[in-house]
Design brief:
Keywords: Ligase. One of its GO terms (molecular function) is medium-chain fatty acid-CoA ligase activity. It is a single chain. The chain is built from 18 helices and 28 strands. With 521 residues, it is an alpha/beta fold. Among the domains are: 6-145 and 155-160 and 177-212, ANL, N-terminal domain (Rossmann fold); 336-412, Luciferase, Domain 3 (Luciferase, domain 3, Roll), CATH 2.30.38.10; 417-514, 2-Layer Sandwich (GMP Synthetase, Chain A, domain 3). The protein has a 9-stranded mixed beta sheet, with helices on both faces. Strand 10 (209-212), helix 9 and strand 11 (234-237) form a beta-alpha-beta unit. The protein is globular.
Length: 521
């Protein structure tokens, strides 16, 4: 080891443009390194020690990146917090993570202040980017601190909190290795190596740039952006996702990699053809996507437009997963790939017994040498385990040659007349309709069948909702989907409730239909 890692690369080429903020401000590696060093010196004066944690409630950009780089060289856990949460939810994470310092950007001041109060955090440990009532300016922490590398450096880690679909979110915590931060950064690059990604200019390769399209508090987003930086790629941040702005940035910065979700693909393909053709996207080598099943025709359209740079994977914050190269996907349309080299996949029935190839069951996975626990919740950690495998509750099947296909989340499965119906399959058909911008399918109460299929549709721009559109959508399913899978009714919504990473908040749509029932199936 010794050629990669942000701190080594910054020392080798301090003038390398390592990051670009959403407003276009460029930051050299030397500048980011100096700021991260000062944060370490300042927080050590506050008494922070290896194994302690810090939290950040910050928008996409270099403020959060500096916190991340500080933690990763000081042996701390860094928890980026979802800025869509309420004050009490934020306070829970600050308290549960045992944060010894909390950084809030003025954009999120109200909820940040409320969160700090909820957590009962000492005011001396509250720091503000900009002006936040009762918080000390970050400058106060950094003033007078040296910008030299701190002594006794050791690798820290991120501790992301799961979305908490069942109960309160839990921090996914891994034991710290105590190794040199640069060596740790170099080990991190194994992930991008799976996709064939190569080092950037400061590491002796060609210039590379990574576009951050989603909020950086998501595990995969910070993982891919942070790892790209460790490889010497320039990280370009978007503040809010916009389809045409994405194309503009790809052309402007000659972006070579990005991380997306299928919703992004749908929005890009919905742009008028003349807009799509206006931008040169030929620099893109690795457009990596995950988080939800991607409709086969949609991915085919993206491959036809962007070429063989569309890679897919399936994974979880907890570790392990599968990967599909463009060629794998062309050979097995719809697959999310086969197991990573150090990962294993297992599909089992409700009794935990392995099922034959081609049979749907619960997906379990494991990754060699990677252990985790949900912080402070041994029961939840064990509940998702089967021997040394774990599951996040997804349903799918493996082919004879080991390629994984997703069906749906177990929690989203509809049981109608005793038949298991997977909403994702129905959504993937409906979303391809040109008059549909977005769709969610779920089960609602039905006295005779247990559940009936409901679709909620966000019409495409300029398309009027109503019975005629509903009839047109259903007619388009003829011959493509068995009638037992057709929605019994379609409702319309102005905007689908999605997290910015593309994850659909289906519970928000489903709950009103079940509120008078004893229980949701």
């Amino acid at each position: 080891m010794g050629s990669l890692g942000f701190w080594r690369l910054a020392a080798r080429d301090p003038e390398w443009i390592a990051a670009v903020d959403p407003d276009g401000t460029e930051h050299t590696a030397g500048d980011l390194l100096a700021r991260a060093n000062r944060v370490v010196h300042g927080l050590r004066e506050l008494g922070l020690e290896p194994g302690d944690g810090i939290c950040g409630l910050v928008p996409n950009g270099t403020d959060g990146l500096v916190l991340y780089l500080a933690a990763l060289q000081a042996g701390w856990y860094y928890t980026p917090i979802n800025w869509h949460l309420t004050g009490p939810e934020i306070g829970y994470i600050v308290a549960d993570s045992e944060a010894k310092a909390f950084f809030v950007h003025e954009r999120h001041a109200a909820e940040g202040v409320s969160g700090a109060e909820e957590a009962g955090l000492d005011p001396r440990r509250r720091f503000a980017f900009g002006s936040v009532p009762g918080f000390r300016p970050v400058a106060e922490l950094l003033d007078g601190q040296p910008d030299t590398l701190p002594e006794n450096r050791s690798a820290g880690a991120t501790m992301h909190y799961t979305s908490g679909t069942t109960g309160r979110p839990k921090g996914v915590r891994r034991a710290l290795t105590g190794i040199d931060p640069d060596d740790s950064g170099e080990l991190m690059t194994f992930l991008l190596g799976l996709f064939g990604m190569t080092p950037g200019a400061p590491a002796g390769g060609d210039p590379q740039a990574h576009l951050v399209t989603s909020p950086n508090y998501h595990t995969a987003v910070s993982q891919f952006g942070g790892t790209a930086l460790q490889m010497g790629h320039t990280v370009v941040y978007m503040d809010r996702w916009d389809a045409e702005e994405t194309l503009r940035l790809i052309e402007r910065y000659e972006i070579t990699s990005t991380h997306m979700v299928p919703t992004h693909f749908k929005r890009l393909m919905s742009l008028p053809e003349e807009v799509r053709n206006r931008y040169d996207v030929s620099s893109m080598k690795w457009a990596i996507h995950a988080a939800a099943p991607c409709p086969v025709p949609l991915k085919q359209q993206m491959l036809d437009w962007w070429g063989d740079c569309i890679w897919e994977y399936y994974a979880a914050t907890e570790g392990g997963g599968s990967i599909a190269s463009p060629q794998d996907w062309r050979d097995h349309p719809g697959t999310v790939g086969n197991a990573w080299p150090i990962s294993e996949l297992l599909v089992v029935d409700d009794d935990g017994k392995p099922v034959p190839a081609g049979t749907a069951g619960t997906i379990y996975m494991k990754m060699a040498g990677v252990e985790f626990e949900y912080k402070g919740d041994r029961d939840k950690t064990e509940a998702g385990r089967l021997d040394d495998y774990f599951t996040v509750g997804d349903i799918g099947y493996l082919t004879e040659d080991g390629f994984l296909f997703l069906s749906d989340r177990k929690a989203d499965m509809i049981i109608s007349g005793g038949a298991n119906i997977y909403p994702a399959e129905i959504e993937n058909e409906i979303v391809m309709h040109p008059k549909v911008a977005d769709v969610a399918v779920f089960g609602i109460p039905d006295e005779e069948w247990g559940e009936q299929i409901k679709a909620v549709v966000e019409p495409a721009e300029g398309v009027a909702p109503g019975p005629e559109l509903a009839a047109e959508i259903l007619a388009a399913l003829d011959g493509r989907l068995a009638r037992m899978k057709w929605p019994r009714s379609i409702d319309f919504i102005e905007a689908m409730p999605r997290e910015p990473n593309g994850k659909l908040l289906k519970r928000k749509l489903r709950d009103p239909y079940w509120k008078d029932q004893g229980s949701a199936i």
